């Protein structure tokens, strides 16, 4: 599986990977165990970033949808679709949460 991006949780105990296979995976850093698979994207996922509190992470990818995922439940909490007049496009070269976790920039 090709991994495009990884992000460490704020506590450094886990990391999440974004992959070519349309999934994200949560990993235990200490022993390399896969803890959870996050599926629902319809194309490659290119970027991933943890929220400052570590309870959620955001992704963006080739399907032009930014998603916010709940780490513990594995559910997709929100989908943010493109609103640009250019091909309904929403994609950035990176993702970032604001320090208070209320805004995602791409």
Radius of gyration: 13 Å
CATH third-tier fold name: Neuraminidase
In total, the number of strands is: 10
**Based on the structure given, which CATH architecture is correct?**
6 Propeller
Quick one: overall form? globular
**What percent of residues are in strands?**
over 45%
Q: What topology, given as strand order, has the largest sheet?
A: 1-2-3-4
Portion of residues within helices:
under 10%
CATH homologous superfamily placement? TolB, C-terminal domain
How many structurally independent domains? 1
Report low-confidence residues grouped into runs of 5 or more.
Answer: none
Largest sheet features: 4 strands, antiparallel
Structural class of the helices, strands and pairings?
mainly beta
**Amino- and carboxy-terminal Cα gap:** 25 Å
Please give a structural write-up:
- With 106 residues, the protein is mainly β.
- It has one domain: Neuraminidase (6 Propeller).
- The chain is built from no helices and ten strands.
- The strands form three sheets. Strands 1-2-3-4 form a four-stranded antiparallel sheet, with no helix packed on it. Strands 5-6-7-8 form a four-stranded antiparallel sheet, with no helix packed on it.
- Strand 6 and strand 7 form a beta hairpin.
- Keywords: Repeat, WD repeat.
- This is Anaphase-promoting complex subunit 4 WD40 domain-containing protein.
Which structural traits does this protein have?
mainly beta, 10 strands, 0% helix
